[in-house]
Specification:
The protein is an alpha+beta fold and 429 residues long. The protein folds into four domains: 5-87, Uridine Diphospho-n-acetylenolpyruvylglucosamine Reductase, domain 2 (2-Layer Sandwich), CATH 3.30.43; 94-212, 2-Layer Sandwich (Uridine Diphospho-n-acetylenolpyruvylglucosamine Reductase, domain 3); 216-307, 2-Layer Sandwich (Alpha-Beta Plaits); 312-408, Alpha-Beta Plaits (2-Layer Sandwich), CATH 3.30.70.2740. 34% of the residues lie in helices and 23% in strands. The protein has an eight-stranded antiparallel β-sheet. Strands 5-6-10-8-9 form a five-stranded antiparallel β-sheet. The protein has a four-stranded mixed β-sheet with strand order 1-2-4-3.
């Protein structure tokens, strides 16, 4: 028998307190997940409360959508339905920090800004700078597989994840990785949960590998007359003794969005080290850039936040291919967008080959997008690449496969793991 709305609210309030349950339609409308409005929202304040909430949802068959800062709720396909939105932001404690071991265990709802402030007192940091900035939650960053330009030096967020505490769909509290008390046999659980979008379990705590904060840092923008020169510089930089923290290809649209002087193409670079090394590497970067026709300018640290904001358009694509062909893919995307007069901003990670493309204008959400996605996917798949539609209006997503083709064997493995972790299919269905 279906639970009545008053009875459901009462059951939720008995776990988290009435002040932390949302059931008013007007308030719930602002918590929609990619167009799907939840029936209720709850804000658990402890791991135990999260466990009890999920056990309740499992018994009642309610679908669940975990939420951190809310900056990436549109990632992935639209949910079939959302009964309960689980707001994780009250799980924001620094559970343990061992400075001498460069390790911290934190609540999933802790923001990157709060984590950075706490670690900064020890000249340490969690070197992840995803789109959305420091307001993003640790759990959200891990669940969405986000990283950022610092990935060039420090790897992805999942590479810095030593252990994870999470709650399974039936309410079972489980550890994976370091500090294992009760784990899931046979799986590298931290790697499995990173990027799983909350479909396998709700992350409640994470044990993170930290890094020292560099004594000095510098950032530069190298503007080129064309993508060919930018590509040649990137190849030379990757083959040099330089050790940048970030190395990002920037197109003309992203430069405009970041309020920078116009250029056909650019490369943004940052270095973190002792002051003498930063100065030396900055000089070498400038010399190499000018050899490839670049105009070189210093930029402040805030420039990296401005670049991330350049990808805030209504449609965002992520192309993944060979790093050596990054600039060629950017040229192809610009050609397709130019034919339809679609505004475009793009950032590419030179080390990984990932290219993010933000599209604006009315045409970006129409039939043109479906054709462009199909054209690019076909070309990328020929060399083992892929394209994901990370953001788009709901009406567009309903006409597109946001993930693209998945090999049959891989899909079978994913379904088996989902069945093992969430047999009732209530987590982000």
């Amino acid at each position: 028998m279906a639970v009545s709305a008053p009875a459901a609210r009462e059951a939720l309030a008995a776990i988290v307190g009435s002040a932390h349950v949302v059931s008013e339609p007007a308030a719930l409308g602002g918590l929609a997940v990619d167009g799907a409005t939840p029936r209720w929202a709850a804000r658990p304040g402890s791991v135990e409360e999260m466990s009890r909430l999920l056990a309740l949802c499992s018994r009642e068959g309610w679908s669940v959508a975990p939420r951190g800062s809310g900056s990436c709720l549109e990632l992935g396909g639209p949910p079939a339905r959302v009964d309960l939105l689980l707001d994780c932001r009250r799980l924001d404690a620094i559970v343990e920090h061992i400075p001498e071991d460069m390790v911290a265990t934190v609540g999933a709802g802790l923001s990157l800004a709060a984590l950075g402030a706490a670690l900064g007192r020890y000249r340490q940091r969690f070197p992840v700078d995803p789109m959305g900035g420091a307001s993003r939650s640790v759990g959200g960053v891990l669940a969405t597989g986000a990283s950022g330009p610092l990935r060039f030096r420090y790897g992805q967020a999942r590479d810095l994840l030593l252990g994870v505490r999470f709650v399974q769909a039936d309410g079972t509290i489980t550890w994976g990785g370091s500090k294992v008390v009760k784990s899931v046999t046979g799986y590298d659980v931290p790697k499995l949960l990173a990027g799983s979008l909350g479909t396998l379990g709700v992350i409640v705590e994470a044990t993170l590998r930290l890094h020292p904060m560099p004594p000095a840092s510098g950032s530069w923008l190298l503007s080129f007359p064309a993508h060919a020169e930018a590509a040649a510089f990137v190849a030379a930089a990757l083959d040099s003794t330089l050790q940048p923290e970030r190395l990002v290809v920037v197109n003309a649209g992203a430069l405009r969005a970041a309020a920078r002087p116009p250029a056909h193409a650019a490369v943004a670079v940052s270095v973190g080290s002792i002051a003498e090394a930063v100065q030396s590497q900055g000089g070498e970067l400038a010399r190499m850039g000018r050899e490839h026709g670049a105009t070189v300018s210093d930029v402040p640290e805030d420039f990296w936040l401005e670049l991330g904001a350049a990808l805030a358009g209504p449609v965002r694509l992520r192309l993944s291919g060979e790093p050596a062909r990054l600039c060629r893919w950017l040229v192809e995307v610009e050609r397709l967008a130019g034919e339809a007069s679609v505004p475009l901003s793009a950032l590419g990670e030179a080390g990984s080959g990932a290219l993010w493309v933000s599209l604006g204008g009315a045409e970006a959400g129409g039939a043109w997008l479906a054709r462009a996605v199909g054209t690019l996917r076909e070309a990328l798949s020929a060399e083992g690449g892929s394209l994901v539609v990370e953001r788009a209006p709901r009406a567009v997503k309903d006409q597109l496969d946001v993930w693209g083709p998945i090999p049959v064997d891989s899909l079978a493995i994913m379904r088996r793991i989902k069945q093992e972790f969430d047999p009732s299919g209530i987590l982000n269905p």
